[in-house]
Amino acid sequence: MADTKAPDSARRSERSRRAIYDAALALVGEVGYAKTTIEGIAARAGVGKQTIYRWWPSKAAVLLEAFVDLGRQASEALGGDADSGIPDTGDLAADLRFVLRATVDEMNDPTFDAPSRALAAEGVINAELGAQFVQQLLEPQLQHYVRRLEAAQDAGDVRPGIDPRIALELFVGPLAHRWMLRTLPLTHEYADALVDYALHGLTPRD
Amino acid sequence: MADTKAPDSARRSERSRRAIYDAALALVGEVGYAKTTIEGIAARAGVGKQTIYRWWPSKAAVLLEAFVDLGRQASEALGGDADSGIPDTGDLAADLRFVLRATVDEMNDPTFDAPSRALAAEGVINAELGAQFVQQLLEPQLQHYVRRLEAAQDAGDVRPGIDPRIALELFVGPLAHRWMLRTLPLTHEYADALVDYALHGLTPRD
């Protein structure tokens, strides 16, 4: 039965990998980044710490991959996949409302909230981790906005002079601001208002 | 010379108060919020810790007041005072560019950066401190935008249906996002682009 050995081993690895992601996210949400250790993740996941060291060089690497996986799960729950980007139905406002409402739901989800706050807080004071977070997690997501806004420019739905990499921040900046600082509730109505204001501007149209 | 006693004492108090603010901001920037203590602030300021306890109930209270004072100094350096709000020259775009450029300069100032990151990081994970930070430091600043945008609405420069409390987040949200996450440089050109995009919208005007 040598044939079945590799699949069994792959299944075990996949199970361990998932247990390590879950343990890392739960732990960082409970005790914060500084007090999260490889030993703590291993104990909680029920694996040896050598298993973790074999796959990842540091706790930052484990956590970043666990967050990438969390984002992938959120995308799949929305019926898409992590690389599918923002829908393009030809209706830019509707597509942006869709993705911003989904982002609001994710920000309001406790599974996402606690570990994300721990990582975000560490990134604010730890420039090196912050740069990894931006490069590996955030910027790929922001590039989905760039591509959708570029398509809208091609379709004549966004002014030609607009820089999509700046324009996207009118949508994601306010959401992150409310989430990080907890100023006011993150609702679908708020997401819709941001889309309306950013697309059509604040000044009257003659 | 009993007459001079009160002023001397007031001067001493003012000197101690300023030393305590400076020590609190420097310390939290160096060691973070969790490791900042009343004892540490007292030692660094060269005062007894009872002096601090007489004036403030907690380290959070000292720090919040030190930040309010830092903001006041930044306003004065701009030639205004802390309560003067956003200028109203009748040119909304110019007034917003002025205040956002000043905010960018403040965010790029190391005196502001280190202690602000320490407080912001703590606020992301500590809901109680975050709420105090928002209520005492942030929201009063945001209300300056509300009042300026309301005046612009009265002048017909902003659409009547716009909610000023949401609209202001198109300006401050993206700045805070770049500052906290260090995605891309915070420049005057970026501030100007935000004002242009938010006021005039991303879609073409017919």
TrEMBL record, chains A, B:
InterPro entries: Homeodomain-like_sf, HTH-type_TetR-like_transc_reg, HTH_TetR, Tet_transcr_reg_TetR-rel_C_sf, TetR_C. Keywords: DNA-binding, Transcription, Transcription regulation. The keyword Transcription regulation applies. This is TetR family transcriptional regulator. GO terms for molecular function: DNA-binding transcription factor activity; transcription cis-regulatory region binding. Residues 14-74 form the HTH tetR-type domain. Residues 37-56 bind DNA. The keyword Transcription applies. It comes from Streptomyces purpureus.
